[in-house]
Amino acid sequence: MAPEVLPKPQMRGLLARRLRFHMVTGFVLSLGVAALYKVGVADKRKKAYADFYRNYDAMKDFEEMRKAGIFQSVK
Amino acid sequence: MLPKAAWSLVLRKGGRGRRGMHSSEGTARGGGKTPRYTNCYAQRHYPMPEEPFCTELNAEQQALKEKEKGSWTLLTHAEKVALYRLQFNETFAEMNRRSNEWKTVMGYVFFFFGFAALVIWWQRVYMFPPKPITLTDEWKAKQLQRMLDMKVNPVQGLASRWDYEKKQWKK
């Protein structure tokens, strides 16, 4: 090999650098995933239930089911 | 059971690696040499094997080994490289080189997926018995109609996707 001089590699602080990178990344990703879950899943679900029950009429629902013939106790 | 790391150590070290650790039987062997298994060379997980790569040295190499016993600052660069090559089969860069083996492996994997698929297709045509009554299309249609009548999961699930006025799936 030709005797060219390579730059001296990083000799110290390797674990510290790795830990810092991974801790920061882990923190950011965890917060991001939690935030996305809250918005995309949890809040969406709460809204769907609220919208469903806002104008829900249980007796009307029951009558529809009864007419469809699924009950054994009432026809 | 042994943890996975221990198993890989057991499997990869080969005969020589394990026995070479404890015994003087290696050095006492003298004339005969145990055959070198391919996985006795240095690997990333086994970087310092007991035996050097070259054990039979010619006169020049013997002289170099004698010089190595003195101060290392007296060795030239070429001599240091020669000593490294005597001790080790490959440098770290050579040992860790990439290969195209993964393409071969994936090829075989997909080939056998396809082969298995053909075998199962043949079985479906010639061997399978008729479906149970609950898996026939008529039964499944009646089952779905009953689920919609019962309004199964009306908030976010099945019945929420059905338009009860128009009697069709919501767009």
From TrEMBL, chain B:
Topology with respect to the bilayer: Single-pass membrane protein
Transmembrane parts of this sequence: 105-122
Pathway: Energy metabolism; oxidative phosphorylation
Keyword Transcription regulation listed: no
Any single Gene Ontology cellular-component annotation: mitochondrial intermembrane space
UniProt keyword list: Membrane, Mitochondrion, Mitochondrion inner membrane, Transmembrane, Transmembrane helix
An annotated GO BP: mitochondrial electron transport, cytochrome c to oxygen
Entry similarity comment: Belongs to the cytochrome c oxidase IV family.
Subunit structure: Component of the cytochrome c oxidase (complex IV, CIV), a multisubunit enzyme composed of 14 subunits.
Role of this protein: Component of the cytochrome c oxidase, the last enzyme in the mitochondrial electron transport chain which drives oxidative phosphorylation.
Protein name as it appears in the record: Cytochrome c oxidase subunit 4
Organism: Macaca mulatta
Gene, per the UniProt record: COX4I2
